[in-house]
Amino acid sequence: MTSGMCVRCGGLIVAFQKESVAREKARQLSDQAGYPVIYRMVKGIVLCGVCLDALPLIGHDICQRCGRDRELQAGINNVGLCRDCVHGKDSENLVANRSLLRYEKGERDLLGLFKYRGDERLASYYGTLLAITVQRYYRCMGFTCITTVPLHPQRLWERGFNQVDLLARHLGAAIKIPVKPLLLRTKDTPKLSKQKGRAARHENMREAFVWDGQDMPSASKILLLDDIYTTGSTLRSCARTIREHLGSSCEIYSLTIYR
């Protein structure tokens, strides 16, 4: 029995071939209580068994702040923080980040189809991955809302859509949390690949966002969504702007597909 085409390789998804892989991945991603929900989500991912098995999942041993896999950062200290988070700026504004996948070459190519070529069929795929990540790390958090990292109007005009807004719609529908646009981007910063070093990225993101005028309770718990966590400068800048408006009682957690 087949159930559609794999979004990664284009091959047919054969249900019985995928079943054992889906069960194993669900076991890797969940504790005993969370297994049934995550299993149903993993089984519904539009990947064949081979591509599902090849997903570069982030392991359980991670930095407790940014979510980096220990395999990629040997310097995680005895309180669970990586070197970057120990010495990072504005860390108090973002409680934690969690991601599902390591950002490897095959993943970059697939995300590029969605992000730069407008392949919107991938929005459902990535939305499911984000829902799995919430179930894995944040299922008891009780978020007030989901918000996204906005694009600058010029970048939005060039691209035609904000891919993260599409992801937020899918995620919000999946986990039954409202999506609210809380920020505007006022600074057209260079692409991260064109910025030289962590300090330059941090400086470029300074005062890049402003509050969008939404009424929110000061004690809100907000899930901030983006596609990739690289240095964290963008997410921390967004978190700083939100907390400047709502106050220090507001808690902000971020969620990305990739780390």
Name the descriptors.
259 residues; alpha/beta; Rossmann fold; four-stranded parallel beta sheet; two-stranded antiparallel ribbon; PRTase-like
The gist of it:
The protein is an alpha/beta fold and 259 residues long.
Quaternary organisation of the protein chains: single chain
SS elements, strand count: 8
Succession of helices and strands: EEHHHHEHHEHHEHEEHE
End-to-end separation: 35 Å
Number of domains as seen in the coordinates: 2
Question: Fraction of residues in helices?
Answer: 40-55%
* Low-pLDDT segments, ≥5 res: none
Report the top-level CATH class of the largest domain.
Answer: Alpha Beta
Shape: globular
Protein name: Amidophosphoribosyltransferase
Organism: Brevibacillus formosus
InterPro entries: ComF/GntX_DNA_util-trans, PRTase-like, PRTase_dom
Family: Belongs to the ComF/GntX family.
How are the SSEs placed, and which strands pair?
Elements: E1 2-5, E2 12-14, H1 15-29, H2 35-44, H3 49-53, H4 83-87, E3 96-101, H5 105-115, H6 122-137, E4 145-148, H7 153-159, H8 163-175, E5 183-185, H9 197-204, E6 209-211, E7 221-225, H10 233-246, E8 251-258
Parallel strand pairs: 3-8, 4-7, 7-8
Antiparallel strand pairs: 1-2, 5-6
Helix pairs in contact: 1-2, 2-6, 6-8
Family: Belongs to the ComF/GntX family.
Keywords: Glycosyltransferase, Transferase
GO molecular function, one term: glycosyltransferase activity
